[in-house]
């Protein structure tokens, strides 16, 4: 009885303490920013199984309802669980058929509640989520972590992106970026991540959401440059090493 | 309404396909003191007549704030109304907590109607004996709904419930086509005029009525007595015997302030067609 309860993710008062989960198949950084017409979000398509890059066509950005995009890093199966949950939420929202709809702010708040409640049960959804959208001309971009920390900002990043992308965004982001400049800025961040994050793969999607709707680009690769002289003769300064 | 053998409990149909207990519950609404509501594109005004059962007591609270963007006026068993208001407040605050956004009034009204319907289909329950005029905002603008004890709800441009509400309804029917474009002030004036209609000649004073407003950018709030009295005075609608068809001037002429303001604060004699349950 106890073990069945524990398996279903419910922790009763007398149950043995459950360890936090270990993530198995994970996605790496998501980077997003506000631009003139809406939100731009980028994520690569890799699903790592530990140190192996096991899956290379994982879509980590999905549209939610009419007004929002959700990007996730972390455990892919938890992301899929969230998508199922949100699908039902949006379905019920649409069933009211009353001209009201859940916007990005509402979804962000809802996700915060979900993540925080799971964390309190010691059964977290192992994701860092980026929620961006536009509703009635208002742009919204927010983040929720696996422990329920949430905030709103003009540019966000998860995982390694926090360390590598955000400094770039802090320097180079400004209000009313054009679409082209926004994409260039995101690609700059993704390129740095590609060079420096070992779980990154060179196959990414950039998603755009505006008042008109959502577009998620086809997967494409960034141009990289490896012709540095230091790579020609790597052991020049350290004879005997490899 | 005649007493008959099919009205003992709510789960018994009559041969004519009626649920008498539900209909009797709607009678209770008709016995309560009047409540009116009217809306424009951007604002909704609720008003009600307050009758205290004696000069010594305070009057019943009939208008409740449910959230910053929703308020309700009740007629009928005020105890039932209080309980339902608490339910509505609870639903609003829970929604706000999860979504950090106001609950669209249309959805609250459906939840309320479903709750009322349950009581019409359980042998161990009775229908709520209160009619609710729900005023609120959502993405599409301002709305006014009426929730019945039967579990039905309707959206209205303007409506009146409770005793002598027919007089108010007649007044509103004549003017409702203009309400959409009304200014906030005109809407309140029409509300006060409608309330006056239900008083059947009695002087309209702020001590015997309550007015509340909600609008885009204006949270739901009940106007205080002083403000209401000033409005009554400035609109000159205190209790002159001019017929309701006379188009009132909205120009604030001061005028018969003496008649309205100086009148005694004791309010109307009690027991005037007010059912005991309403007190």
From TrEMBL, chain A:
Listed transmembrane segments: none
Annotated GO CC locations: cytoplasm; nucleus; proteasome core complex, beta-subunit complex
Main localization (coarse): cytoplasm
One GO-annotated biological process of the protein: proteolysis involved in protein catabolic process
Keywords: Cytoplasm, Nucleus, Proteasome
One Pfam family matching this protein: Proteasome
Keyword Repeat (UniProt): no
Subcellular compartments: Cytoplasm; Nucleus
Family label: Belongs to the peptidase T1B family.
Function, as annotated: Non-catalytic component of the proteasome.
Record text on subunit structure and interactions: Component of the 20S core complex of the 26S proteasome. The 26S proteasome is composed of a core protease (CP), known as the 20S proteasome, capped at one or both ends by the 19S regulatory particle (RP/PA700). The 20S proteasome core is composed of 28 subunits that are arranged in four stacked rings, resulting in a barrel-shaped structure. The two end rings are each formed by seven alpha subunits, and the two central rings are each formed by seven beta subunits. The catalytic chamber with the active sites is on the inside of the barrel.
PANTHER family recorded: PROTEASOME SUBUNIT ALPHA/BETA
Descriptive protein name: Proteasome subunit beta
Annotated source species: Citrus x changshan-huyou
From TrEMBL, chain B:
Domain Proteasome alpha-type subunits: 6-28
Coiled coil: none
Single GO BP term: proteasome-mediated ubiquitin-dependent protein catabolic process
Region (Disordered): 242-279
Ribosomal protein found in the keyword field: no
Subcellular location per the Swiss-Prot or TrEMBL entry: Cytoplasm; Nucleus
GO CC aspect terms: cytoplasm; nucleus; proteasome core complex, alpha-subunit complex
Gene3D superfamilies per record: Glutamine Phosphoribosylpyrophosphate, subunit 1, domain 1
Assigned protein family: Belongs to the peptidase T1A family.
Role of this protein: The proteasome is a multicatalytic proteinase complex which is characterized by its ability to cleave peptides with Arg, Phe, Tyr, Leu, and Glu adjacent to the leaving group at neutral or slightly basic pH.
Assembly notes: The 20S proteasome core is composed of 28 subunits that are arranged in four stacked rings, resulting in a barrel-shaped structure. The two end rings are each formed by seven alpha subunits, and the two central rings are each formed by seven beta subunits. Component of the 20S core complex of the 26S proteasome. The 26S proteasome is composed of a core protease (CP), known as the 20S proteasome, capped at one or both ends by the 19S regulatory particle (RP/PA700). The 20S proteasome core is composed of 28 subunits that are arranged in four stacked rings, resulting in a barrel-shaped structure. The two end rings are each formed by seven alpha subunits, and the two central rings are each formed by seven beta subunits. The catalytic chamber with the active sites is on the inside of the barrel.
Protein name: Proteasome subunit alpha type
């Amino acid at each position: 009885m106890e073990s069945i309860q524990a398996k279903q993710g419910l922790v009763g008062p007398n149950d043995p303490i459950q360890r936090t989960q270990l993530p198995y198949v994970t996605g790496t950084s998501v980077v997003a920013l506000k631009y003139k017409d809406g939100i731009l979000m980028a994520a690569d398509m890799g699903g790592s199984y530990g140190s192996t890059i096991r899956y290379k066509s994982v879509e980590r950005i999905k549209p939610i309802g009419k007004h929002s995009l959700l990007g996730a890093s972390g455990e892919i199966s938890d992301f899929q669980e969230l998508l199922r949950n949100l699908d039902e939420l949006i379905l019920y929202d649409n069933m009211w058929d009353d001209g009201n709809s859940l916007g990005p702010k509402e979804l962000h708040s809802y996700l915060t509640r979900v993540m925080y409640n799971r964390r309190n049960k010691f059964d977290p959804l192992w994701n860092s989520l980026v929620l961006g959208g536009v509703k009635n001309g208002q742009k919204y971009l927010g983040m929720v972590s696996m422990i329920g920390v949430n905030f709103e900002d003009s540019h966000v990043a998860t995982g390694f992106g926090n360390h590598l992308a955000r400094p770039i965004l802090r320097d180079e982001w400004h209000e009313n970026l054009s679409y082209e400049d926004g994409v260039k800025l995101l690609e700059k961040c993704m390129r740095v991540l590609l060079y420096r994050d070992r779980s990154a793969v060179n196959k990414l999607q950039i998603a755009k959401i505006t008042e008109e709707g959502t577009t998620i680009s086809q997967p494409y690769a960034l141009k990289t440059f490896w012709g540095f002289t230091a790579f020609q003769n790597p052991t020049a300064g350290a004879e005997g090493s490899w | 309404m005649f007493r008959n053998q099919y009205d003992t409990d709510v789960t018994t149909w009559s041969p004519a396909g009626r649920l008498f207990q539900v209909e009797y519950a709607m009678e209770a609404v008709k016995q309560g003191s009047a409540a009116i509501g009217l809306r424009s594109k951007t604002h909704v005004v609720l008003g009600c007549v307050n009758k205290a059962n004696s000069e010594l007591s305070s009057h019943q609270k009939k208008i409740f704030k449910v959230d910053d963007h929703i308020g309700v006026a009740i007629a009928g068993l005020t105890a039932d109304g209080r309980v339902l208001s608490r339910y509505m407040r609870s639903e609003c605050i829970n929604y706000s907590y999860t979504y950090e956004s106001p609950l669209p009034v249309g959805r609250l009204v459906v939840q309320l109607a479903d709750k009322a319907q349950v009581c019409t289909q359980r042998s161990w329950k009775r229908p709520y004996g209160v009619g609710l005029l729900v005023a609120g905002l959502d993405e599409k603008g301002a709305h006014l709904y009426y929730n019945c004890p039967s579990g039905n709800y309707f959206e209205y441009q303007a409506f009146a419930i409770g005793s002598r509400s027919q007089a108010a309804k007649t007044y509103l029917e004549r003017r409702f086509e203009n309400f959409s474009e009304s200014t906030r002030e005109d809407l309140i004036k029409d509300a006060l005029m409608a309330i006056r209609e239900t008083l059947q000649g009695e002087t309209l004073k702020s001590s015997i009525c309550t007015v509340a407003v909600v609008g885009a950018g204006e949270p739901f709030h009940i106007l205080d007595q002083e403000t209401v009295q000033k409005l009554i005075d400035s609109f000159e609608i205190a209790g002159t015997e001019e017929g309701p068809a006379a188009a009132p001037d909205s120009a604030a002429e001061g005028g018969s302030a003496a008649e309205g303001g100086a009148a005694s604060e004791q309010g109307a004699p009690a027991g005037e067609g007010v059912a005991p349950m309403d007190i």
